[in-house]
Amino acid sequence: MKGRQIEPExxxxxxxxxxxxxxxxCDHACLHCGSRAAVSRQQELxxxxxxxxxxxxxxxxxxxxxxxxxxxxxxxxxxxxxSALAEAGITPVMTTGGWDMTPERARTMAQAGMKRVSVSLDxxxxxxxxxxxxxxxxxxxxxxxxxxxxxxxxxxxxxxFNRLNQADLEGLYxxxxxxxxxxxxxxxxxxxxxxxxxxxxxxxxxxLLDFMPRVAALKQRGLTxxxxxxxxxxxxxxxxxxxxxRSPLPGGQDFFQGCQAGKFVLGIESNGDVxxxxxxxxxxxxxxxxxxxxxxxxWEKAAALAFxxxxxxxxxxxxxxxxxxxxxGGCNFTAHALLGRPGNNPxxxxxxxxxxxxxxxxxxxxxxxxxxxxxxxxxxELIEEEFNPSERYHSASP
Length: 398
What we know:
This is Heme biosynthesis protein. The chain has helices at residues 47-60, 78-87, 103-112, 125-132, 137-150, 169-178, 208-225, 242-246, 282-285, 295-301, 317-320, 324-327, 332-339, 349-356; strands at residues 17-21, 64-68, 91-96, 116-120, 154-161, 183-188, 228-231, 265-268, 273-275, 288-289, 360-368, 379-386.
């Protein structure tokens, strides 16, 4: 592992990178929220129960734990857990919407051992507040960045891009640079949770033809301006800018090497359920509950976590792709949320380019709604159709 990078060829599988949802209680109700966060889950772990998990993580070799929600600081588990992780030699970091990230709260977090905080910024002011569904949330996010930096913690940012905010990409880069942000994770909104209820906001696969070159241009610029842009696991895949996007250093040759869920990544839900990735739909992917089983038993024995160690066959375009052996169908939760199972992911730059060069494109049409539960999804039909060459490298309107 180089920094936060996971080396997939490492023979020993262990949960190096854990994302822990402390609560579903939240001070936002975002349109794109996969967990539909607003109020707490039933039977969330108590501080005493949560602290018992820390030595189990240390025993398995966990190096970093990202605390999320909902909004993690709303949980009574939050500060005791930050301290316990730091004392166990595990790096605690956090993702936050920043609504109530006061200077006092930030200082308390830093004193407890928090090292880095990523603030979610989902566009410039208009788009951010439309997505976050709360007036003044943009100002609160910027104030949070200031409070985090003043408290001595590293500031990073993360953004879900979709059709509501994709026009803000370059403007956000400029803003984040002014805010002193040094790393920015970019991903696309997946059709999970509330986003499944908003199909018009989701990218169509051909939107990547315009979006990916813009991200690549900013990545190149950021490498010279001390703002590192890294793609989330559901963005990209083997377009001409693949090595540039995946590499943290200029001239790197990194590339996407398949989903790491259940191999080097682990997700814990606030009620103690364990998944191979925090964003996977809960029902088919929960491997056990920490109230009933040890973390080691779940990690080593649960079939629901082992699905990436022996992945299901690819299908559709992904089965015929020249990058199939290494990519393995891209991000599993993104594909499952669209088509009801992994192994065929239309959000792929290589795929969109391949089809566009033949005058074709794929269109996603929702044919079944989500049920209204955390990490649920509907069902989409994938329609291949003619693509006008004049549209080839331009995002279409919704």
